[in-house]
Design goal:
By secondary structure, this protein is an alpha/beta fold. It has 10 helices and 16 strands. The chain has 2 domains: 5-186 and 304-387, Aminopeptidase (3-Layer(aba) Sandwich), CATH 3.40.630; 188-299, 2-Layer Sandwich (Alpha-Beta Plaits). An 8-stranded mixed β-sheet has the order 1-2-4-3-5-16-6-15, sandwiched between helices. It has a 4-stranded antiparallel β-sheet with strand order 10-12-8-13, with helices on one face. It has a two-stranded antiparallel ribbon with strand order 7-14.
Length: 391
């Protein structure tokens, strides 16, 4: 079947919620207004339970089906949307553009939240399933590990969640299409912070100095060899140094320099190898140049790894909504996603819903495509009704 008919009727309301959220972006855990908006809607829909304050500002709604599941059947599934925005100045000039300077929904979390609210409204009206549908509205996806915070607050155990599903919009994927894959779908992300202490001095007397700029340049070049000369060409890894800070005068060799960057990997084995080699490269360049190099290597989000059975199920649901020809297996992405913590806690799957030919994620001209609402919302609904099928 195509989209759920009732969802087409609800589309104007869902779009209106999305645009209200878009106009009022909030960052990380400071999503108090958005969380209150979500909780108010869930109460209006008649959810059986609305819990707030999980993971500091997360919101959870529980919707019970008309029937109890049979013995041995799945009883509870979780559906997750993220609520936080980004510290970016919006450049869309749209009527619903951000009202908050320096903040915008540049990743589509406004759309994710609105679509899950639309599904919650429908599911609370119909309850045509057996068991509990748990809708999860999470703060701090953009670097704050809000998923981990909600899990630490007892999300999975408190609500008895057995499987968990996530969704993200995908610029470049046509509206009405979905993309998914089993196994690693998004990368682990780690951070590199390097402080170099050389010996500063006059630019005309480099022989009397240990040039922190040269040391930093050598480090960058050497770090790039990790992927090209250590990692199996059939595996994937990224090492990117994105900040280089040193000096403030053209005739002074700076005493210190700082480098900052990111590492992305898709398997635990490659992650271990890259971390080990980054340490070895820093030690080697320090010995070669005589500089003091301090490395801080911090692990961030783990790999977002889809579970095989749940991915197959999610794929079939997406095909039911969009048609088999509009659901594609995708290659892994080297971006990161903290839904990875939820997939470590419970089996599930993460899918991408087409956003059309829009600006890319995290771009100041990005906007969630409201035409995608009916597809994403219908996917959530059919996921619940099929996974928790009533007899």
């Amino acid at each position: 079947m195509p989209i759920v008919n009732r969802v087409a009727d609800l589309q104007p309301d869902i779009q209106a919620w999305r645009r209200v959220i878009h106009e009022n972006p909030e960052l990380l855990y400071d999503v108090h207004r958005t969380a209150a908006f979500v909780a108010d809607r869930l109460r209006e829909f008649g959810c059986d339970e609305v819990a707030t304050g999980l993971g500091r500002t997360g919101v959870v709604g529980v919707i019970k089906g008309k029937q109890q599941p049979g013995k041995g059947e799945i009883k509870v599934i979780g559906l997750r949307a993220d609520m936080d925005a980004l510290p970016i100045e919006e450049q869309t000039n749209l009527p619903h553009a951000s009202k908050i300077s320096g903040k915008m929904h540049a990743c589509g979390h406004d759309g994710h939240t609105a679509m899950l609210l639309g599904a919650a409204r429908y599911l609370a009206e119909t309850r045509n399933f057996a068991g509990d549908a748990v809708v999860i509205f999470q703060p701090a996806e953009e670097g704050g590990a809000g998923a981990a915070a909600m899990i630490q607050d007892g999300l999975m155990d408190r609500f008895g969640i057995e499987q968990v599903y996530g969704m993200h919009n995908g610029p470049g994927i046509p509206v009405g299409c979905f993309a998914i894959r089993p196994g690693p779908v998004m990368a682990a992300t780690d951070s590199i912070d390097i402080k170099i202490e050389g010996l500063g001095g006059h630019a005309a007397r480099p022989n009397k100095c240990i040039d922190s700029v040269l040391v930093g340049s050598q480090l960058i070049t050497a770090l790039q060899s990790i992927v090209s000369r250590t990692i199996d060409p059939l595996e994937s890894a990224v090492v990117s140094i994105c900040e280089f800070h040193a000096g403030n005068a053209r005739n002074v060799i700076p005493h210190t320099a700082e480098l900052r960057g990111t590492v992305r990997t898709l398997t635990p084995e490659v992650r271990e190898t890259v971390e080990k080699r980054v340490h070895e490269v820093c030690e080697g360049v320090a010995k070669m140049t005589g500089a003091k190099i301090d490395l801080t290597y911090e692990r961030g989000y783990p790999v977002t790894k889809n579970h095989a059975e749940q991915t197959d199920f999610a794929t079939q649901v997406a095909k039911e909504v969009a048609g088999a020809q509009n659901v594609h297996e995708m290659p892994p992405l080297m971006g990161a996603e903290d839904f990875s913590y939820m997939l470590e806690a419970r089996p599930g799957a993460f899918i991408f819903c087409g956003n059309g030919d829009s600006a890319g994620l995290h771009h100041p001209a990005y906007d969630f495509n409201d035409e995608a609402i009916v597809y994403g919302t219908s996917y959530w609904i059919k996921l619940v009704e099929n996974r928790l099928a009533a007899s």
